[in-house]
Amino acid sequence: GIQVEQSPPDLILQEGANSTLRCNFSDSVNNLQWFHQNPWGQLINLFYIPSGTKQNGRLSATTVATERYSLLYISSSQTTDSGVYFCAVETGSRGSQGNLIFGKGTKLSVKP
Amino acid sequence: NAGVMQNPRHLVRRRGQEARLRCSPMKGHSHVYWYRQLPEEGLKFMVYLQKENIIDESGMPKERFSAEFPKEGPSILRIQQVVRGDSAAYFCASSPVGTGGTDTQYFGPGTRLTVL
User: Fold this and answer.
1) Which residues of chain A have pLDDT under 70?
2) Among B91, B103, B104, B77, residue whose Cα is nearest residue A43
3) Chain-centroid distance, C-alpha B51
4) Dist. CA B23–CA B32, nearest whole Å
5) What burial class does residue B5 get, using C-beta atoms within 10 Å of its C-beta: 0-12 exposed, 13-18 middle, 19+ buried?
6) Most buried residue, A12, A54, A90, B58, by CB count within 10 Å?
7) DSSP annotation string for B81-100
Protein backbone atom coordinates (compact mmCIF):
# COMPACT_ATOMS: atom_id res chain seq x y z
CA GLY A 1 0.00 0.00 0.00
CA ILE A 2 0.90 3.66 -0.19
CA GLN A 3 3.51 4.95 2.26
CA VAL A 4 3.27 8.40 3.83
CA GLU A 5 6.35 9.84 5.47
CA GLN A 6 6.50 13.11 7.35
CA SER A 7 9.52 15.07 8.38
CA PRO A 8 10.82 16.19 10.72
CA PRO A 9 9.22 14.03 13.42
CA ASP A 10 9.80 16.71 16.04
CA LEU A 11 10.33 20.44 15.76
CA ILE A 12 10.95 23.06 18.42
CA LEU A 13 10.62 26.71 17.45
CA GLN A 14 10.88 30.04 19.12
CA GLU A 15 7.75 32.15 18.81
CA GLY A 16 7.90 34.20 15.62
CA ALA A 17 10.01 31.74 13.66
CA ASN A 18 9.00 30.19 10.34
CA SER A 19 8.94 26.47 9.56
CA THR A 20 8.39 24.01 6.74
CA LEU A 21 6.89 20.56 7.27
CA ARG A 22 7.20 17.93 4.60
CA CYS A 23 5.04 15.00 3.52
CA ASN A 24 6.28 12.43 1.00
CA PHE A 25 4.00 9.79 -0.45
CA SER A 26 4.84 6.77 -2.54
CA ASP A 27 1.98 6.69 -5.06
CA SER A 28 -0.35 9.03 -6.92
CA VAL A 29 -3.19 10.41 -4.81
CA ASN A 30 -6.71 11.75 -5.30
CA ASN A 31 -6.88 13.46 -1.97
CA LEU A 32 -4.33 15.04 0.35
CA GLN A 33 -5.24 16.81 3.55
CA TRP A 34 -3.24 18.54 6.27
CA PHE A 35 -4.52 18.48 9.83
CA HIS A 36 -3.50 20.06 13.10
CA GLN A 37 -4.12 18.02 16.24
CA ASN A 38 -4.08 20.43 19.13
CA PRO A 39 -2.87 19.52 22.64
CA TRP A 40 -6.48 18.68 23.58
CA GLY A 41 -6.59 16.04 20.87
CA GLN A 42 -8.94 17.75 18.46
CA LEU A 43 -8.24 17.35 14.74
CA ILE A 44 -8.55 20.55 12.79
CA ASN A 45 -8.72 20.62 9.00
CA LEU A 46 -6.07 22.89 7.57
CA PHE A 47 -6.01 22.21 3.85
CA TYR A 48 -7.51 19.95 1.23
CA ILE A 49 -4.73 20.11 -1.35
CA PRO A 50 -4.23 17.19 -3.76
CA SER A 51 -2.28 19.59 -5.99
CA GLY A 52 -1.29 23.24 -6.24
CA THR A 53 -0.88 25.91 -3.59
CA LYS A 54 -3.26 27.34 -1.02
CA GLN A 55 -2.90 29.95 1.70
CA ASN A 56 -4.87 30.62 4.83
CA GLY A 57 -3.49 33.39 7.02
CA ARG A 58 -0.07 32.42 8.35
CA LEU A 59 -0.35 28.93 6.89
CA SER A 60 0.17 27.85 3.33
CA ALA A 61 0.57 24.52 1.60
CA THR A 62 1.93 23.29 -1.69
CA THR A 63 1.51 19.86 -3.21
CA VAL A 64 3.60 18.77 -6.19
CA ALA A 65 1.66 15.70 -7.20
CA THR A 66 4.05 14.66 -9.98
CA GLU A 67 6.92 14.53 -7.48
CA ARG A 68 4.78 13.05 -4.71
CA TYR A 69 5.32 15.52 -1.92
CA SER A 70 3.52 18.25 -0.07
CA LEU A 71 4.84 21.07 2.09
CA LEU A 72 3.15 22.95 4.89
CA TYR A 73 4.55 26.38 5.71
CA ILE A 74 3.96 28.07 9.03
CA SER A 75 5.08 31.68 9.25
CA SER A 76 5.47 33.83 12.37
CA SER A 77 4.69 30.84 14.59
CA GLN A 78 2.67 31.31 17.77
CA THR A 79 2.42 29.15 20.87
CA THR A 80 -1.09 28.17 19.78
CA ASP A 81 0.46 26.48 16.73
CA SER A 82 1.84 23.78 19.02
CA GLY A 83 0.55 20.27 18.49
CA VAL A 84 0.94 17.53 15.93
CA TYR A 85 0.58 18.14 12.21
CA PHE A 86 -0.64 15.24 10.12
CA CYS A 87 -0.60 14.70 6.42
CA ALA A 88 -3.17 12.21 5.09
CA VAL A 89 -3.66 10.88 1.57
CA GLU A 90 -6.15 8.79 -0.32
CA THR A 91 -5.37 6.95 -3.52
CA GLY A 92 -8.96 6.28 -4.58
CA SER A 93 -7.85 2.93 -5.89
CA ARG A 94 -10.27 0.03 -5.92
CA GLY A 95 -10.86 -1.22 -2.43
CA SER A 96 -9.53 1.88 -0.70
CA GLN A 97 -12.13 4.50 -1.46
CA GLY A 98 -12.57 6.75 1.50
CA ASN A 99 -9.52 5.34 3.23
CA LEU A 100 -7.28 8.20 4.37
CA ILE A 101 -3.73 7.02 5.10
CA PHE A 102 -2.08 9.16 7.75
CA GLY A 103 1.57 9.87 8.26
CA LYS A 104 3.03 9.64 11.74
CA GLY A 105 2.95 13.40 12.13
CA THR A 106 5.31 16.21 13.00
CA LYS A 107 5.18 17.27 16.63
CA LEU A 108 5.63 21.02 16.84
CA SER A 109 6.43 22.88 20.04
CA VAL A 110 6.49 26.68 19.89
CA LYS A 111 8.23 28.30 22.87
CA PRO A 112 7.33 31.81 24.05
CA ASN B 1 -23.86 24.58 10.55
CA ALA B 2 -22.85 22.10 13.20
CA GLY B 3 -19.76 20.01 12.60
CA VAL B 4 -19.36 16.30 13.07
CA MET B 5 -20.62 15.34 16.50
CA GLN B 6 -19.41 12.44 18.55
CA ASN B 7 -20.54 11.17 21.90
CA PRO B 8 -19.58 10.41 24.46
CA ARG B 9 -16.36 12.40 24.46
CA HIS B 10 -14.89 10.16 27.15
CA LEU B 11 -15.87 6.60 27.90
CA VAL B 12 -14.53 4.32 30.60
CA ARG B 13 -15.23 0.61 30.48
CA ARG B 14 -14.01 -2.41 32.40
CA ARG B 15 -12.57 -5.36 30.56
CA GLY B 16 -15.33 -7.51 29.09
CA GLN B 17 -17.92 -4.74 28.85
CA GLU B 18 -19.33 -3.30 25.64
CA ALA B 19 -18.52 0.15 24.26
CA ARG B 20 -20.84 2.06 21.94
CA LEU B 21 -19.54 5.14 20.21
CA ARG B 22 -21.87 7.46 18.29
CA CYS B 23 -21.24 9.77 15.39
CA SER B 24 -23.57 12.26 13.75
CA PRO B 25 -22.19 13.51 10.43
CA MET B 26 -22.34 17.08 9.25
CA LYS B 27 -25.65 18.13 7.76
CA GLY B 28 -25.84 17.05 4.15
CA HIS B 29 -23.09 14.45 4.49
CA SER B 30 -23.99 10.85 3.77
CA HIS B 31 -20.53 9.26 4.06
CA VAL B 32 -19.05 8.34 7.42
CA TYR B 33 -15.59 7.06 8.29
CA TRP B 34 -14.17 5.74 11.55
CA TYR B 35 -10.52 5.96 12.53
CA ARG B 36 -8.60 4.85 15.61
CA GLN B 37 -5.64 6.62 17.14
CA LEU B 38 -3.52 4.66 19.58
CA PRO B 39 -1.38 6.68 22.02
CA GLU B 40 1.51 8.51 20.33
CA GLU B 41 0.50 7.25 16.89
CA GLY B 42 -1.22 8.51 13.78
CA LEU B 43 -4.78 7.68 12.87
CA LYS B 44 -5.62 4.35 11.29
CA PHE B 45 -8.64 3.82 9.05
CA MET B 46 -11.21 1.35 10.32
CA VAL B 47 -14.40 1.49 8.26
CA TYR B 48 -16.26 3.54 5.65
CA LEU B 49 -20.05 3.56 5.60
CA GLN B 50 -22.90 5.10 3.71
CA LYS B 51 -26.49 4.96 4.90
CA GLU B 52 -27.33 1.31 5.53
CA ASN B 53 -24.20 0.11 3.72
CA ILE B 54 -20.66 -0.79 4.70
CA ILE B 55 -18.44 0.26 1.79
CA ASP B 56 -15.01 -0.67 3.14
CA GLU B 57 -14.24 -2.40 6.42
CA SER B 58 -10.70 -3.40 5.61
CA GLY B 59 -9.34 -1.69 8.73
CA MET B 60 -11.72 -3.28 11.21
CA PRO B 61 -10.41 -5.96 13.55
CA LYS B 62 -11.96 -9.30 12.62
CA GLU B 63 -13.58 -9.89 15.98
CA ARG B 64 -15.51 -7.85 18.54
CA PHE B 65 -15.79 -4.71 16.37
CA SER B 66 -18.81 -3.75 14.28
CA ALA B 67 -20.16 -0.58 12.74
CA GLU B 68 -23.45 0.57 11.32
CA PHE B 69 -24.98 3.68 9.81
CA PRO B 70 -28.74 3.20 9.84
CA LYS B 71 -31.25 5.03 7.70
CA GLU B 72 -32.20 7.15 10.70
CA GLY B 73 -29.90 8.19 13.50
CA PRO B 74 -26.18 8.32 14.08
CA SER B 75 -23.48 5.93 13.01
CA ILE B 76 -22.50 3.50 15.77
CA LEU B 77 -19.13 1.85 16.36
CA ARG B 78 -19.60 -1.06 18.71
CA ILE B 79 -16.83 -2.87 20.55
CA GLN B 80 -17.81 -6.01 22.41
CA GLN B 81 -15.88 -7.50 25.31
CA VAL B 82 -13.38 -4.67 25.43
CA VAL B 83 -9.75 -5.33 26.32
CA ARG B 84 -7.07 -2.91 27.50
CA GLY B 85 -5.59 -2.75 24.01
CA ASP B 86 -8.81 -1.13 22.79
CA SER B 87 -7.96 2.00 24.79
CA ALA B 88 -7.56 4.70 22.16
CA ALA B 89 -9.15 7.77 20.65
CA TYR B 90 -11.81 6.93 18.08
CA PHE B 91 -12.50 9.59 15.48
CA CYS B 92 -15.39 9.83 13.10
CA ALA B 93 -15.27 11.83 9.87
CA SER B 94 -17.87 12.67 7.27
CA SER B 95 -17.91 13.92 3.71
CA PRO B 96 -20.63 14.80 1.22
CA VAL B 97 -19.02 12.71 -1.51
CA GLY B 98 -17.02 9.58 -0.94
CA THR B 99 -16.28 7.86 -4.18
CA GLY B 100 -12.78 8.33 -5.51
CA GLY B 101 -11.71 10.43 -2.58
CA THR B 102 -12.57 13.70 -4.22
CA ASP B 103 -13.75 15.59 -1.21
CA THR B 104 -12.61 16.73 2.19
CA GLN B 105 -13.26 14.58 5.22
CA TYR B 106 -14.27 16.58 8.28
CA PHE B 107 -13.42 15.09 11.65
CA GLY B 108 -15.32 15.06 14.89
CA PRO B 109 -13.75 15.73 18.31
CA GLY B 110 -13.23 12.04 19.00
CA THR B 111 -14.23 9.65 21.76
CA ARG B 112 -11.49 8.71 24.17
CA LEU B 113 -12.04 5.14 25.34
CA THR B 114 -10.27 3.93 28.44
CA VAL B 115 -10.48 0.27 29.38
CA LEU B 116 -9.68 -0.49 32.99
Assistant:
1) 92-98
2) B91
3) 14
4) 8
5) middle
6) A90
7) S--GGG-EEEEEEEES--GG
| pLDDT tens column, A82-103 | 999 999 998 766 555 668 899 9
Beta partners for residue B49, in sequence order: B32, B54
Of all residues in chain B, the one with the smallest CA distance to A91 is: B101
Q: Residue B48, SS3?
A: strand
Which residues, 6 or more positions from B108, have their beta carbon under 8 angstroms from its beta carbon?
B3, B4, B5, B6, B23, B91, B92, B93
Q: How far is A53 from chain B (nearest CA, A)?
A: 16
* B44: three-class secondary structure by DSSP: strand
CA dist B110 and B96 (Å) reads: 19
- Looking at residue A8, its amino acid is P
Given a contact cutoff of 8 angstroms between Cβ atoms, the answer to whether B94 and B31 are in contact is: yes
Tell how far CA A81 is from the center of its chain: 13
Say if B85 is an interface residue toward chain A (CB within 8 Å): no
Tell me how far apart the alpha carbons of residues B92 and B77 are, in angstroms, rounded to a whole number.
Answer: 9
Report how far residue A18's alpha carbon sits from residue B22's, in angstroms, rounded to the nearest whole number.
Answer: 39
Q: A4 with A89: CB under 8 angstroms?
A: yes
Could you say which of A30, A41, A95 has the minimum Cβ distance to residue B102?
A: A30
pLDDT at position A78 is 97
Query: How confident is residue B97, by pLDDT bands cut at 50, 70 and 90?
Result: low
Ordered DSSP codes for A30-50: SEEEEEEE-TT--EEEEEE-S
- Selected residue of B6, B54, B102 to mutate for chain A interface (largest A Cβ count, 10 A): B102
